[in-house]
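seq:
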Amino acid sequence: MRRDHSDDPVNNSEMEEKVVYFTNPLHDAIPGLDFLPLRAGHTKTLPSYRKESVMGDAHVMMFIVRGAGVLQTARGTSPFSAGDVVGFFADETCSWWSMPHSPLEHYWMSFSGEGGRGILKRLSCSDTAFILRRPSMPPKEKRLLERLLQLLKNRSDASIWSSISCCFAIFDSVAQTYSPLSEQPSQSAGDLANQTRRFIEKNFSEPLTVTDMAAFLGTSVEQLRRSFRETYGMTPYA
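struct:
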């Protein structure tokens, strides 16, 4: 008799290929800077791969190369896709998974220190997990991530300065290629309102909140409300 495996738990070890994974040999953040790159990797997963994460003392950024997935936090779920940057703060519990029909490829790096927390907050205007939405990963950013992997692979005390410099170049690339909707001029209000309306229509059966919708669209709650006021003269989100 053939056994039905449909209800078996997923074995992530058979669904994940860590192409590279390097760890910094140093353990202490640079005094005064309070920032230290810890680990970096390039990972490919099969569809329906699921990752449960408790970050501990490390902040993490994922750079999506191809595929799509879903991020789940205490605030709800948000999808991400190729080009997006997903960030987690230290001590934050969350999970993410790849879509059922979508293999996922991404680079990732983790770092410690309050300086790292400040950088993530500056990029995301948030103190919880976030998704920065972009149409694609810039080629320059991919080269920088490959460079970071090689620097950590060398595992020398001297390379720590270059790896820190490389991290800041990556942060700069993200900052230049991601423009928060909250900073766009008011003429984008109609587009934002229409995106929100389509999102509501697609997910009408889900218990959505205005915070969920703002997170999905990569904007602030106030900007979401303002876009409805400018477009329709009223907002359903008091």
